[in-house]
Here is the input.
Amino acid sequence: MIRSVVLRRTAPIVLAVVGACLVGCADKNVPPAAAAVGGGNVASGEVGLDAAATQSRATSGAGHSSDTGSARSRDAQLPVRNVPKRSHQDSVALASMSRPDSALDRLWPVKMPEPLPGAVLPAKRIVAFYGNPLSKKMGVLGEYPKDEMLAKLDREAAQWAKADPSHPVQQALHLIVTVAQGAPGKAGLYRLQHRDTMVKEIYSWARAKHALLFLDVQVGKSTVQAEVPRLREFLSNPDVHLALDPEFSMAPSGAIPGKKIGTLDAKDINWAVNFLDGIAREKNLPPKILVVHRFTRKMVTNATNIHFTPHVQVVMDMDGWGPPWLKFDSYHDYVKKEPVQFTGFKLFFHNDSKKGGELLTPAEVLRLNPRPLYIQYQ
Here is the structure.
């Protein structure tokens, strides 16, 4: 029965850090590659879905794209190339996501004003490489030497451009600039702030490619309000944007990063929106982008209260790893069902394929509705 397949989606959340992340890193600028906690999801095995499953969507699907115009009228125009053979479970889940769902269709696209001049979204699709150059375990940005990594980004971006010619691809580097730690450090905040010199170096890489730079903040036991202002100088550039990772926001629970999944409330995210809005207005910049990672319900509380402004575009990014059927369900439950503005989807070169399956292709991800306009590779 389809229902039994679709409902098999909740994996036990094992409180262990994915990859080679260990605890005990001091609050130094350059951590050992295996010492930073913030390199992967806390939930092990699959996407960190909540224990309470929603109803089957075997006879429902997804709504319109978050970009302007009619998504459904373009579906037939999108080429399908080199789609791998998937398991029955994955195929059924993707089919269910592609069918109309009138209740949710009405929520998409999110009502918003016309984009201001220079806005990246919704005209383009962002394809970003995530990580930290000081660690090979935190993502593709640090896993490979610079030139090899940038060439790999070119190849992935080309695949997305081919899969959806209606959306030019905007490349990006997504740098973890504040990294959650397993030890308190001198400040006792379980987070490491990287020096500006490293940020400037990665920014130079991005500028050379006409790519965007996202600065990703994992606050540990600190707060968004305390950690983000130090990045004002960088965020005052038109091609530098912000990301928040609730997974490693531990102050509400008091837990150590990597021992429990963290959380941010809408009020914290709205504070960041207002901070970016102030910079964009003051500097007369094109709209800023704020990416918020999410793969469980409790990671973002009161999500429906998150606001955006004409000067700040908010992306809710499905950040979990696992088999396709589980990623699709996570996207449905934690991104689509609680609309903010735009949507994102994360792909893990290693974790998504660790059980032998192939990485989701652009053609497959583009069958989701709303179609993600922010694509991140770790």
Summary: The two ends are 34 Å apart (CA to CA). Residues 136 and 312 are 32 Å apart (CA to CA). The chain has one domain: 2-62+83-111+121-377. Residues 2-62+83-111+121-377 form a domain with the TIM Barrel fold (CATH 3.20.20).
